[in-house]
From TrEMBL:
Signal peptide: none annotated. Component of the FACT complex, a general chromatin factor that acts to reorganize nucleosomes. The FACT complex is involved in multiple processes that require DNA as a template such as mRNA elongation, DNA replication and DNA repair. During transcription elongation the FACT complex acts as a histone chaperone that both destabilizes and restores nucleosomal structure. GO terms for molecular function: DNA binding; histone binding; nucleosome binding. This is FACT complex subunit POB3. It holds the Pfam family SSrecog. InterPro entries: PH-like_dom_sf, RTT106/SPT16-like_middle_dom, RTT106/SSRP1_HistChap/FACT, SSRP1-like_PH1, SSRP1/POB3, SSRP1/POB3_N, SSRP1_DD, SSRP1_sf. Keywords: Chromosome, DNA damage, DNA repair, DNA replication, Nucleus, Transcription, Transcription regulation. Residues 372-466 form the Histone chaperone RTT106/FACT complex subunit SPT16-like middle domain. The keyword Membrane does not apply. PANTHER family: FACT COMPLEX SUBUNIT SSRP1. Residues 482-566 are annotated as: Disordered. Residues 543-552 have a biased composition (Acidic residues).
Length: 566
């Protein structure tokens, strides 16, 4: 057998780019065809090897002694005999042929190996998940566990002696990435049964729910809760507005951990892109806002910002768990051994020292009419506070929105027509460059209009004030209406005012004052005009009326009945 065996078109750990793989007695190496870093593995680190079907033909999976898994994909079926001799002669390892289950069942048994978890169907593996690809796990339900996978750096394969660049390298190799998987695990079991053994008869063995035991075992195997070094500082029961809940914060040398009742997160300081301290307008709280890339994931929801809230007058005394040599060396002028200050300041200073990020505060050139930095407003139905920073807008707590001034095309002040509060509030619409959309902040107090307009002009932003334009147009319309009404009042020498003219006094030539003779003549033409004998006439009239009444009564009496004769 030759001193070196070479194979072309081989992919390392599902990498997008193929390369050349070479085996030698001292170990193996892989180099990408397009150039780049070479991966090498010493023969002393090879603990086992398996041969199986894979996406690009056949693959060799190597179990490393340092708990890692190495995948070489792209071999042909006829390469098996050649590779089997290489592993047996040079590495004293048998290349086992492993067949996968192709039934497509979604129920089976999960087994925890040294470097990966295997989902088996009828004693055959359906798929395997390396622990190095698991970023987090949470109890998603009563009998359900959610397993989250890391998002890497685009599938770049590099390293020496089995060293990997970090979690998520294999997941990022494909165009599409699997980000989460959930397992339904009912019933109860014991730890010994979960590991494949039988419970001892007569011995008291504590039974636990199978889902809780799976969750605890996965955290231990994947080292999700493990961090390098001891805890430098711990803050208990910190209120988080985004994501909502209370979490304990454990701060380590290279990462920090959020521990809640349901969810547990481990976040690298490298993922922190922004860090802001924002005073709340109630004058009793401070908010700490941490921008993350990649964002924090909770199921299907992504949180690009973590928003914490602290009381302004809450004091804390804290001693950092750091040796004096580290404080004077690595963290010189970054951290202090002892803190006795308000809690929000201590948390901010420690984050600044460990993550080496600048603390951003609101711009001093802007304050509201109440001399505060936060503007109360809303995005759609979500109420919050808008802060004007030196280089960007920031809306908190939910949805946390960050808009830099460099991305802003223009800003429009407007007022919602027909709204009850249109006279006391207004809206701001921020238009982004390159047609990237816009964001609207509604229900801002009208008294802050002038201060905002002056601040935006100070920052060199284009501002369009539709409120002033509407006011100008309205004033012009009122002036036109007033002029028109005044013109209508002077239309000629005599305007027709309807019945109003009838009220004015005028002399009616046909009118004559009535007299006693006029009234008498209207009813009695033979009556004398001098009015004599009126009393006698009245008596005669009354007598005539009485005679007429008697005649009417006689006519109304019914006829008398005739008596019957014997």
């Amino acid at each position: 057998m030759a001193a070196i065996e070479s194979f072309d078109n081989i992919h390392l750990d599902l990498s997008r780019e193929h390369g050349k793989c070479r085996f030698a007695e001292s170990g193996l190496g892989w180099k990408p065809a397009g150039g780049g870093d070479t991966f090498t593995l010493d023969q002393s680190n090879i603990g086992g090897a398996h041969w199986s079907r894979a996406a690009r033909g056949y693959e060799v999976k190597i179990q490393q002694r340092n708990s890692g898994v190495l995948q070489l994909d792209g071999f042909q079926q006829e390469d098996y005999e050649r590779l089997s001799k290489i592993f047996k002669s040079w590495y004293s390892t048998n290349l086992e042929n492993k067949e996968h289950s192709l039934r497509g069942w979604n129920w089976g048994k999960a087994e925890f190996g040294k470097a990966e978890i295997s989902f088996n169907v009828q004693n055959r593996p359906a798929f395997e998940i390396p622990y190095s690809e698991i970023s987090n796990t949470n109890l998603a339900g009563r009998n359900e566990v959610a397993v989250e996978f890391s998002v890497g750096d685009g599938g770049k394969a590099s390293g020496k002696n089995g060293a990997t660049p970090g979690k998520g390298r294999k997941a990022a190799a494909g165009r599409d990435q699997l980000t989460e998987m959930r397992f339904y695990i009912p019933g109860t079991t014991t730890r010994k049964e979960a590991e494949g053994g039988d419970a001892e008869s007569g011995a008291e063995v504590e039974e636990k729910s199978a889902v809780a035991l799976f969750y605890e075992t996965l955290i231990e195997k994947a080292e999700i809760g493990e961090t390098a070094g001891d805890t430098i500082a711990t803050f208990l029961d910190v209120l988080h507005l985004t994501p909502r809940g209370r979490f304990d914060i454990d701060m380590y040398d290279a990462s920090f951990r959020l521990r809640g009742k349901t969810y547990d997160y481990k976040i690298q300081y490298e993922a922190i892109k922004k860090f802001m301290v924002l005073p709340k307008p109630d004058d009793t709280h401070f908010m700490l806002c941490i921008g993350l890339d990649p964002p924090l994931r909770q199921g299907q929801t992504r949180y690009p910002f973590i928003v914490m809230q602290f009381k302004q007058d809450e004091e804390v005394t804290l001693d950092l768990n750091l040796a004096e040599e580290e404080l004077n060396g690595k963290y010189k002028d970054k951290l202090q051994p002892h803190y006795e200050q308000p809690l929000h300041q201590v948390v901010a200073y420690i984050f600044k020292g460990l993550a080496n990020k600048k603390i951003t505060a609101p711009a001093k050139d802007f304050t509201t009419h109440r001399q505060q930095y936060g503007i109360k407003c809303s995005i759609k139905a979500s109420e919050g506070f808008l802060y004007c920073l030196e280089k960007a807008f920031m809306f908190v707590p939910k949805p946390a929105t960050y808009i830099s001034y460099e991305q802003t095309q223009s800003i429009t002040f407007s007022r919602v027509s027909g709204a009850v509060s249109a006279l006391s509030t207004f809206d701001i619409t921020v238009h982004l460059k390159s047609g990237a959309g816009s964001s609207q902040f509604s229900n801002i107090n009208r008294e802050d209009l002038k201060a905002l307009e002056d601040f935006f002009k100070l920052k060199g932003l284009r501002v369009k004030n539709e409120i002033d334009e509407e006011t100008t147009l309205m004033a012009a319309a009122l002036r036109d209406e007033a002029m028109a009404s005044s013109d209508e009042e002077v239309v000629g020498p005599k305007a027709d005012r309807g019945s109003a003219d009838e009220d004015e006094e005028s002399v009616d030539e046909d009118f004559r004052a009535e007299s006693e003779s006029d009234v008498a003549e209207e009813y009695d033409s033979e009556h004398s005009s001098d009015g004599s004998g009126s009393a006698e006439s009245d008596v005669d009239n009354r007598v005539d009326d009485e005679d007429e009444d008697e005649d009417m009564e006689e006519k109304k009496e019914p006829p008398k009945k005739k008596k019957k004769s014997a």
